[in-house]
Give the backbone structure.
Amino acid sequence: MVDPPSVRRPPTAALAVVLTLLAAAPAAQGAEKIVVLESPDRTPAAETAERERKLGFEADQTYDRVLDGFAADLTPRQVARLEADPEVADVIPVRTFRATAVTEALDGDYVPAGVRRITQLERGQAREQASGAVAVLDTGVDLDHPDLDVEPGENCIARGAPPDDDDPDGHGTHVAGTIGAKNDGTGVVGVAPGTKLYAVKVLDRNGRGTSASLLCGIEWVLRHAAAKNITVANFSLGGHGPYSTCKTDYEHQAFCRLANAGVTPVVAAGNSGADFAAPATRELPAAYREVLTVSAIADTDGRPGGEGPACGVADDTAAPFSNYATKAADENHLVAAPGTCVASTRRGGGAPYAVMSGTSMATPHVAALVALCKGEAGEPGPCAGLTTPQVIARMRVVSAWSSFTGIAGRRFGPLAVISDPRVETPPVVTYPEEEPRATSPAKPAPAPAPRPAPAPAPTPPPAARPAPHPPRPAIPSAPPRAATPDTPGAATAAERRPSIRLKTPRLATLLRRGLTLRIACPDDCSGIVRLTVSQKDARKLKIRGTTLGRARVRREGTVRLKLSQEVRSALRRTRRVQVRLRAEIDLPERTVKSSKTLTLRR
């Protein structure tokens, strides 16, 4: 794999902040890997400790929420031993990601234009704090910043150290300020002033991290969300990756679990000026349909109409660096927010404050709006009790449609604004990959009265506003995926299907090497294949369950299906067994199911 194309920066005095997930480098001595355990009999920590003793490594992270397993620097020999371990489901190379930023100083004491625009307030007004907390997964947050109500979460870079923002540009602190900088008469004011923030450090001081540290951050949020009332997680990061679903990719699965736990993931669309869901430029996690993705637009006067001064690009236009959607199904989880020349808190506290641009800066605007929608000033909001997919649908329903929402086939989504409790809540949507989270009905609450911010500069009355926008169009729904039975390798003239090729092995070969499959897909694909027996044969073999083994499909290519020690021991006692190979392959717009019966003999 190659590194993603260079980021196109916006032509502004304050250049874009970009977080890019890079492709993994070739395996080297001591390369970091994520090891996934297959239904461990003991806790992942105990299973990890046993392998540490046997193989002589030390794990960097241990997981039991996002997955069962651990991350560690492993030599090629240790990797080979783990891949041969029947209790290990997968050994995955990590992706690395980094942050770069250029900032300029700003002295000020005001509600920024972008904050006024999405909260629909005038100068000198601000919202109350959100009832729930927001987790900021970033370079950390300045834990001593006087303008932020922030508490330490987890440091996934240096375990045991506080998750302070040590990035010279203070990227995480800037993000945190847009969400919840206090309305206290100093500095800037956030979208939800005074909201409780939790710093979760997944990037080091050079702006670099790995997918292992990202999973560590999500693990911490899942573990503490209920106790700490975390309702939203902000991810101002992204990078290129393959198509996947909740069932077929561990990083994707982590975001699905976060969403199903009632924590809405709000993520940046990316700064490549491209389609965030297209195969060649796919941005992750932005392309995951279980997250609320945010593109960037310019707003310099806090109001619609395009009459504000230009800041590199014209007011009320899409930022040229921002990623976008080209298909309605991808736009279904996309909204826009101000992302150019955004002023917010800076690492170190006090003035000067920083100006940055990028979808990284647009994302916290929306994260704070979602938090306010779930509850404000201790009162439940219009999103209280809603599932994550329903929250995403509601944020789009209440958003403002404008000229930047579609330019030459580029869909930037509607501009996110404060949720109006009078707008009807969309129907509940659940994910097919996981069980939906049980929720209570939403409780309507009156909109709280905004609180004036102290010491605003007197300004003349605003000019007459333009006429209201026409009624918002209904949200287009993604075409349903049809689960179509099929036989591996078969194809029809009506549509191209994935194919699975294999040579039926003898039992001895299956016990020694597992089952090797060749997957060919007409498009991006991912999925899972299982080797099963009937319940009658499972009882004869004296094994738990009917599944002999399974393997994940992440892309076209060769897949090896391994058997557990229990299954191998059982098969050694038989001379003939009939098995069924079942495959479920997810394509971008449909799922294809297939099965084939095999008779294995010695």
